[in-house]
């Protein structure tokens, strides 16, 4: 596991994700525009709830509010939400159909 997540490729991807988070959130808000996505596609925000991450959870809840999205805080979970809570992620995905 360490060999995979310690690779330069993973670090570059994580840095890019972190650096562009605000831009992506803004683009989603513009797309949402208070009217929903084209075709009425639902938006859900799933957030991990690692220990001592209250600020992170508040930011994710605020993002969901801005996007008029459903919000779920999943615990225990870390950055790899789909690995830590696969059933909850699958349920949210299937419910969006």
Write up this protein:
The chain has 97 residues and is mainly alpha-helical. The chain has one domain (2-95). Helices cover 58% and strands 10% of the residues. It contains 5 helices and 2 strands. It has helices at 2-5, 8-32, 54-66, 81-84, 86-95, and strands at residues 44-48, 70-74. A two-stranded parallel ribbon has the order 1-2. Strand 1 (44-48), helix 3 (54-66) and strand 2 (70-74) form a beta-alpha-beta unit. The longest helix is centred in the first third of the chain and has 25 residues, at 8-32. The radius of gyration is 15 Å and the shape is globular. The mean pLDDT is 80.
Name the descriptors.
single chain, 97 residues, mainly alpha, two-stranded parallel ribbon, globular, AB_hydrolase_fold, AB hydrolase-1 domain-containing protein
What Rg, in angstroms, do the CA atoms define? 15 Å
Order of helices and strands: HHEHEHH
**What's the number of domains?**
1
Distance linking N and C termini: 33 Å
Can you summarize the main beta sheet? 2 strands, parallel
Helicity range of the residues? 55-70%
Determine the strand fraction and express it as a percent band. Answer: 5-15%
Number of helices: 5
Spans where pLDDT lies below 50 across 5 or more residues: none
Structural class: mainly alpha
Mean pLDDT level: 80
Strand order of the largest sheet: 1-2
Q: Kindly state the number of beta strands.
A: 2
């Amino acid at each position: 596991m360490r060999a995979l997540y310690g690779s330069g490729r993973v670090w570059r991807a994580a840095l890019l994700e972190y650096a562009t988070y605000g831009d992506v959130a803004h683009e989603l808000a513009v797309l949402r525009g208070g009217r929903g996505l084209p075709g009425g596609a639902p938006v859900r925000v799933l957030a991990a709830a690692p220990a001592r991450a209250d600020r992170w959870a508040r930011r994710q809840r605020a993002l969901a509010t801005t996007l008029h999205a459903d919000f779920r805080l999943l615990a225990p979970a870390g950055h790899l939400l789909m690995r830590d809570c696969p059933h909850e992620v699958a349920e949210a995905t299937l419910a969006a159909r």
